Amino acid sequence: MKSLLKYLFIMVLSSSLTVIALNQFAPIVITIPKKDKQEIKIDFDQTLTKKDLKRIDRKAKNIILLIGDGMGSNQVTAYRIAKGGPNYITAFDKFPFTGFVKTHAVDTLITDSASSATAYSSGIKTVNGYLGVDKDKQIVGNITETLYEKGYISSLIATSEITHATPAAFAVHNESRDNTDQIAEAIFKSNNFILLGGGRDFFLPKNLGGQREDKLDILSLIKEQERYLSSKEDLNNFEFDPSKRIFGLFASEGLIRKENEPNLLEMFNFTLEQSEKMLVNNCAGFFIMAEGSQIDWEGHENDFNDQFKEMDEFNQVVDRALEYAKLDTNTLVIALADHETGGLLIEMDDFRNKPSNKMKISWNTAVGYGTHTGSMIPAFAYGPGAENVTGVIDNTDIFFIMKEALGLDELSDRQCL
């Protein structure tokens, strides 16, 4: 009996000390509150009103499109506060042009990454789960395909599998984001020059330890025909060769942050360096899409601490891209999300009328595995054509903003190599 009382006393004491310590020192209090709900009937008109774009006289030569998957306005705000307080300056705060982007899919208010990324890559609304096809499953051309005909080098980077919805929407045409066998094969056959991320298993058949059902060993084809990078060391020791495409597959599925994996900034810097080298080889310019994929994943998990790490990494990439564009003067940088994940809120803590060193946040879509929301997401832009990223715009407008910035319709066909 005495032993039991002793253990109970230790448990109560430990819990009390933990609560006191958290109240005293922890900068963030995370809760998952109960919430009131209402369903409101809406008129889902599928007729789009396109943004009336300003004509860009001084055209961009390059485009860097940075997508923080699941990054809503409150993710940016909470990151800023957790990083250095409410007055801290993030990379997002340095952009001269900002806007809000409507994210809905063609037939539902809540988009997924496939539909949203297709809007960015092709300028059309489509059904959730569709990649590079319209609502009738008809193929629509994407910006990397058009740019290839104009002598551009295009690159896709992600911290997810490179076959995941967002990067895939810039490379393939498929009615389901789950058709990973077909998607990996289409990515291999695409004209994108650099592809970096995870997803090695989707290029490898099951009998060789991968996940492909069709027994096609695409990884061997990559090793035979292109340049294959499997680790951070391979990335750092790479020797430039303009005649072969570059496939960096650094994890079986999404990156898991092992020491031998490059992070998003390292992959971005590598791609930027190789893209600049390709400009010497008669390329007209470059297009880079880099996705901070796991911001979304941590939103689904209701995990702000790990989401902060993902946001911090993405912020570094945004800062690097902005720094490059300011020196280069010919590059349009657009940083935005595809949708918001988790319904993140920054709420009143217990000390509204008193000084407080806490930020109380909550997730408001589900406990344990949050969902996407229909809120507008922030967009930030710098460089030639950035002035069109203002006000409230549709996600399909981003495609046309990039086209206008480059003067794509006026460019002549040419070969990069």
CATH architecture: 3-Layer(aba) Sandwich
Would you identify the regions where 5 or more consecutive residues have pLDDT less than 50?
21-26
Gyration radius over CA: 23 Å
Proportion of residues in β-strands: 15-25%
Structural class assignment: alpha/beta
CATH topology: Alkaline Phosphatase, subunit A
The major sheet is characterized as: 10 strands, mixed
CATH class placement: Alpha Beta
Give the mean pLDDT: 92
The total count of strands amounts to 15
Helical content stands at: 25-40%
Instruction: Tell me the overall shape.
Output: globular
Helices and strands, in N-to-C order? Answer: HEEHEHHEHHEHEHEHEHHEEEEEEEH
- Overall domain count: 1
Between the first and last Cα atoms, what is the distance in angstroms?
82 Å
Describe this structure in words.
The protein has 417 residues and is an alpha/beta fold. Helix content is 33%, strand content 18%. Mean pLDDT is 92; it is low at 21-26.
Quick recap:
The protein has helices spanning 2-25, 73-84, 113-122, 143-149, 165-168, 180-189, 218-225, 232-236, 264-279, 294-300, 304-328, 397-406, and strands spanning 28-31, 62-68, 97-102, 152-161, 194-198, 227-229, 246-249, 285-292, 331-336, 340-341, 345-347, 359-362, 372-373, 377-382, 391-394.
